[in-house]
Amino acid sequence: MKRLLGYFLRGLMLTVPLVVTVWVCYSIFVKVDGWLGIEIPGVGFAITLLLITAIGTLGSSILTRHAVGLLEDLLARLPFVRLLYTSTKDLMSAFVGEKKGFSQPVLVSLGLGAEVKILGFLTQASAERLQSTDSVVVYAPHSYAWSGQMIIVPSSRVTLLKADSAEIMAFTVSGGVMDFPKLG
Length: 184
What we know:
Radius of gyration: 22 Å
Largest sheet: 5 strands, antiparallel
Shape: flat
Order of helices and strands: HHHHEEEEEH
Helix content: 40-55%
Structural class: alpha+beta
Number of strands: 5
Number of helices: 5
């Protein structure tokens, strides 16, 4: 009976992530296809990817850079739109932009005796504008969530890690259940 339960649990471990992944991908395809009114699953998603790539190509062109700049200036002048647009743009830039915001993983000592530590990413090497000259800004992602905490901490409590930032992010978001990334 114990062996049968073990097989069942192993089956859950193999089946649930696969089913969730397929379901999420299928739901995205169907949703995008529905927005575009296309009946064939995945075609609308493919068209959307091509359209985004075409917009990226046009936005990189010398001929359209001025137009993109004018559009961004216009969006920056509209009160609510400015907040929404710049926040979204900054978030996207942190992950996929030329100046990635989560490229330097760090270990932050929180307690006086430094017994408690958290993993995070250095986002600002100086918090001088906040009148905190000896501090840095660190973003610490939450486990199993698309959220995190921004902390301002004395630079003396921050240790730069020589590790792949994507591996540190995956380790942190997994709640530490993955193997710890190689340092060095």
